[in-house]
Specification:
This protein has 17 helices and nine strands. By secondary structure, it is an alpha/beta fold. Strand 5 and strand 6 form a beta hairpin.
Length: 432
């Protein structure tokens, strides 16, 4: 829905600007010449809306929330458009028609959003679901539905086939009249009410996998619902060639190091001035197929001689003033472009964990070994969806995102992760 919303609003904004430029009195533009600035302004608006989370209905969930973020997004879009017009002559247009076009496109977008929010409010209940199961997956799925109303799902009933008879489940279905039954059971053998589900399907009620629904809604995997046979025989979790991703990562790392050379020198000087110790910090991490390598970062903490914890919360007092700024904007990760060039990492992938934690995580986190089937990354899905982990429970939560990435990895997914990373780097925003 996010991509569709962005596309529709961009087309509407482009059409509004184009119409204003064509109809502007005294200086009407030719259709083709008016199209370039219209497209440019619409693209600037789309980029600004994306960086201000205006396409994310979890953030802009009402017209009021959308309107509060709109002025800043429009101001940034206007600055971007002015910069584009200065650099690209084909995008130039007179100031007054451009501002009028921006006002018209803004009106079109606000009108579309008002219609969308009214429609969402009318169908607030959305699809009615009955959950089958009472284990961890059912609880997680219920919590995800309750905390994210933009999904427009409502749980109208729950049943546990272990405790409830098929007759009781059929009575529940008859009284609640759900649109779908969601099977959220970790162990189904001999427990699934197959005949009841078949009759429900014949009556027009959908039947869905709880783990698949949770995956689509949350953007992460339900580890507790993953059966070993699914992993062993699934082609999605097997090592696969990443030649294109590898080539793009190397090219991006080389270009990044070249372009960031002045910034690297500035950061190195700031680190030396701010505190004693080396500029770089090298730590042993575990990468592809369990291979150990030294990951390079800018030093963000005061060095100590004793062995310390790797959890962020245990080292807050050691973080330097420059280090806090580097961490906020993720600038301490820039030296890892060297690891990309050496073949240790890709641009996108699961973050490599310190060697000292690897054995603990392998023992305590289900399916942890799967992280090593792909090359680790400078940034990853878990990094843009979750903050720093400070305990085993939070590491397990990040593992859900890592497995989701491994299962669905593609160049398009990598591009999305890089755009989300840009939000953090450019705006200094914390992850969700």
């Amino acid at each position: 829905m996010t991509r569709l919303l962005a596309l529709v609003e961009s087309v509407a904004a482009c059409a509004a600007v184009w119409a204003v430029l064509l109809a502007w009195p005294h200086h009407p533009a030719a259709p083709v010449s008016a199209l370039a600035p219209a497209l440019g302004l619409a693209l600037c608006g789309a980029v600004s809306f994306y960086f201000h989370d205006l396409y994310d209905l979890r953030v802009a969930r009402t017209l009021g929330a959308f309107s509060l973020r709109l002025p800043q997004a429009l101001a940034i879009a206007l600055v971007m458009a002015a910069a584009a017009q200065s650099a690209l002559p084909d995008l130039r247009a007179d100031a007054l028609p451009t501002l009028a076009g921006l006002a018209a496109s803004c009106g079109a977008v606000i009108g579309m959003r008002a219609w969308l929010y009214r429609r969402l409010a009318r169908s607030a209940a959305g699809r009615r679901l009955v959950l089958l199961g009472s284990g961890p997956l059912a609880r997680r799925l219920g919590a995800e539905i309750a905390s994210n109303p933009h999904h427009r799902l409502t749980v109208v009933g729950r049943a546990d086939p272990v405790l409830d008879s098929p007759e009781e489940i059929e009575s529940l279905l008859a009284s609640t009249r759900p649109d779908a039954i969601v099977v959220a059971m970790a162990e189904r053998r001999g427990r699934l009410p197959v005949e009841t589900l078949l009759r429900a399907r014949a009556g027009g009620v959908g039947v869905e996998e709880g783990s698949a629904l949770y995956e689509r809604m949350a953007g992460k995997l339900a580890i507790e619902a993953l059966r070993p046979s699914e992993i062993v025989f699934s082609p999605l979790f097997r090592p696969s060639g990443d030649r294109v991703a590898r080539a793009l990562s190397v090219a991006a790392a080389a270009a990044g190091l070249a372009l960031a050379a002045p910034l690297i020198a500035l950061i190195a000087a700031a680190i030396k001035i701010d505190s004693r110790g080396p500029v770089f910090f090298v730590q042993t991490r575990v990468g592809l197929r369990g291979r150990r390598f030294g990951m390079v970062k800018f030093r963000t903490m005061h060095p100590v001689q004793r062995e310390t914890s790797v959890w962020v919360r245990d080292n807050q007092e050691r973080i330097t003033r420059v280090g806090r700024l580097l961490r906020r904007f993720r600038l301490d990760e820039i030296p890892q472009f060297l690891n990309v060039l050496r073949g240790d990492m890709n641009l996108v992938g699961p973050r490599p964990h310190p060697e000292v934690n690897h054995r603990l995580f392998a023992e305590k986190i289900p399916h942890y070994a799967l992280r090593c089937v792909v090359r680790p990354g400078v940034t990853g899905w878990a990094q843009v969806r979750y903050s720093y982990a400070n305990n085993l429970e939070e590491e397990t939560e990040k593992m859900r995102y890592d497995l989701y990435y491994i299962k669905h990895r593609s160049l398009a997914f990598d591009a999305l992760i890089l755009m989300e990373t840009c939000k953090v780097v450019l705006l200094g925003r914390s992850t969700r």
